[in-house]
Task: structure prediction
Amino acid sequence: MKLRANLVIGGALFALAIVVGLLAPWLAHTDPVMDANLMNAEEPPSWTWWFGTDAQGRDIYSRVLYGARVSLTVGIVSQLINSVIGVALGLSAGYFGGWWDDVVNALTNLMLAIPSLIFALAIMAVLGPGLTSLLIALGLTNWSFTCRLARASALSLRSQGYVQAATVLGYGDVRIMITQLLPNMLGPIVVIGTLGMGSAVLSEAALSFLGLGVRPPFPSWGSMLSEAREQITTAPWLSIFPGLAIFLTVLGLNLLGDGLRDILDPQSRSRRT
Amino acid sequence: MTGSPLLEVEDLRIDLDDGLRRVAAAEGISFRINRGETFGLVGESGCGKSITALALIGLLRPPLSIGGGVIRFDGQEIQHLSAARQRQLRGNRIAMIFQEPMTALNPVSPVGRQIAEMFVLHKGKSWREANQLAVEALASVRVPAPERRVKDYPHQLSGGMRQRVMIAIALACGPDLLIADEPTTALDVTVQAEIIELMRNLCAERGTAILMISHDLGLVANVCRRVAVMYAGRIVEERGSADIFRAPSHPYTQGLVDSLPRLGSRAALGRSRLKEIAGVVPAITRFPDGCRFNPRCAQATDICRATAPQTEGLEAGGFVRCHHHA
Result:
């Protein structure tokens, strides 16, 4: 059996990010918030300070480890909310058609017309800053692509012989959507979902930068990156390491999505064996 | 039991509403099927046989709708039942198998699960019981090694095997009526014979009536006890299947029977062209007045062009819808 490189590498990177986030208290060298020491400010990477230190002398390595917690929570949870909303709306719209389809389409177009970050900003302004409002804001604003995809899949799958056969065999609408349509569109939905997790991580960075995400001094990759912007020429390690963490996580998620798509399609599964 | 009618269709009319006007895509459809009987519905593409089947199971979708008439299943009128009640009938008491075994199975679900779902859905079984019953169902359609095959996905099975799975699904709940819409068109001839034989045996064992829909008069006459021939939305002739070959009454049926190739005919008659029926089926919106077959009929006279013929009973049983029937 051929080893699926994308699945293994992607899964490993994503798992690494999760493990790092979970084990941060044991892996970190210092406390990410409290151990500021201006004597060690802006040290470049060395054996003592693996990833260097920032302007307040805090250990970047430790902050990156703790930052994984916020970034991954936001990425996974908000994308799950988006996927559930998008699939529920898109699938039902494509399957039922009619006025419900029109309503969902109008809603989707509305969401696409307003930049999602602006919309998220508005929600954050109402809910106030913090992790929970961040999850809600990002979870409610990025479902339109998933919705479009689910609707298009449902439209094309609806006319498939086996969906009609299921109707003839007495399946109800909900059962048809769950057993016939959903499994057949899961591949692209998962791929879009993993991509969405990556962009949620980036959105979190943007909102944190604007002071609406996780409040400083608590670290998230996004806020670290934003804070490092001004020192990018003098202390590049401040941007490189959080950036690398985001890059590797998003890369891992994309590879994982790719690999999952192959596995979720039984035809390619049997081609392998 | 065999005497009482299982399905009675009386004067069924199916409307096609294109937004501007209503036209009858099929009308005056009447037939009855007794318990355990095999009944065939024959006609060319577009004559209305498939929409008749859809009307029976309550699945006509706009722009098509039932415009009138009565469908009585097991003594109960079913044409106006609620969607939920019709769904309880479908798959449970009336099952259907399709033309395309390639596409009628869900590609991402193992076939055993698809069979088991029927027991869960209609018989309220647990999944554990249902999976066991699925193995038995697969064995009953003579799929070898059913306990291993239940885990297979549809693409791992051949066309004949898939159609066997479809039959297993359709017969899972022991329906009273099986509607087979061109069940073997997509299969090659030897597999076709096996599948038909299997279907006939299983239904005979369980007392399931079959409504077989096909354009293949030979096949239908071979399987069914009685045959109805449809042309342009009307049943033009209904006979015992032996009679329809021996002495077709309606000119259209005669044309169909004449256009069948016969084994050995070249030796008897010399090298001659197959007979055909001149012309094409009229479009639904442009059915001719009077008898709908009159533009293509060699025997057509003025009355055929003016008045639509009513059904006339035949001595040997059955009826024909023609002014000049033989």
